[in-house]
Amino acid sequence: MFFRIVLCSDTIKVAYELNPPKIVKGERFDFVQLKGNIQEMTHRASQLHGLVDGIHLTDSVLGIPRVSSVTAARYIKEYIDAEVRLSCSVRVRDRNFPSLCQIVSDAILTGAESVLLLRGDEPADRLGDSGLQPSTAVRMLKKEGYDLNIKLDLSFPAKVKDKSARSIRNKLDIAPHSLVTQSISSLSDLGEIADLAKPYGIKVTAVVMVPSEKNRQSASLIGLDWSEYESNPVDFIKQAAKMAEGVLLTSPNSFGSGLHLLQQLKQ
User: Fold this and answer.
1) Rounded to whole angstroms, how far apart are CA atoms 230 and 24?
2) What is the reported pLDDT for 7?
3) How far is it between the farthest Cα atoms of the chain?
4) What CA–CA distance (Å, rounded) separates 215 from 17?
5) Bridge-partner residues for 203, per DSSP?
6) Ordered alpha helix ranges (H), 49-116
7) I need a labelling partner for 115 at 20 to 30 A (CA). Which of 35, 70, 139, 205 fits?
8) Domain ranges of the chain
């Protein structure tokens, strides 16, 4: 899912994460407001064009209903008058197998290169959970042959505390196309993940959160300590991109900070 950026004679791969707009802002659904928010999202995507290798669309982060990642990808593809590589997150806790097949089929028809299967945060209303696990979802989709048409990725911890843990072994045994980490804070932890995945032929994508003041609260909520790279995120990203297949840059509360860091990477 990547264009290529040449940095200091080294080729690295960097994609950027975008959150689709919330479906409801305020007390009631407002179609005019939603259309405006979608236009804002597509405008941001156009600003990323030429700076990144691809765009990744999230799926209802924190369990707050948002425009689906696949619908968002479709809007971006229509808005940007150029080839753009797209990937989509898919929350499995909200879906049974038929609805999972529907959204992955939609992603294929939209032209997405990959889908990232993850459990997802608990819904805001705390109601309903399909019980479906991401590893099980990938296994079922591979059995049906979806992996012949789209890359199936799995989320992975930023640090592996127990390599023999059943949850870790399941992800490796199912052999997704890629393991997409949670936000990393350490290159040594990333190296361990890459070494763990290599014998299985699984690629690794390292997620890096932009270390800006506006993102500090988000980092705190997930226990992310970015002290290893806060003073020099550019070199950290370059090193991470060499150790993994590529980097997925996330800046949940400051698009401007993310854009600035991408421009620094481009220099």
Assistant:
1) 34
2) 37
3) 52
4) 14
5) 178
6) 69-79, 97-110
7) 35
8) 5-266
Q: What is the pLDDT of residue 123?
A: 76
Q: What angle do CA 180, 207, 23 make, to 5 degrees?
A: 85
Q: Could you identify the residue written with the tokens 């080294």? A: 10
Nearest Cα to 159, choosing from 119, 134, 194, 133? 194
User: Are the C-beta atoms of residues 171 and 163 closer than 8 Å to each other?
Assistant: no
At 42, list the tokens: 């597509």
Residue ranges, the chain, pLDDT below 70? 1-10, 81, 124-128
In 3D space, the residue among 202, 86, 101 whose CA is nearest the CA of residue 142 turns out to be 101
Give φ, ψ of 109 to 5 degrees. -65, -30
Check if the beta carbon of residue 177 is closer than 8 Å to that of residue 153. Answer: yes
Of the options 3.40.50.300, 3.40.50.150, 3.20.20.220, 3.10.129.10, the CATH number for the domain spanning 5-266: 3.20.20.220
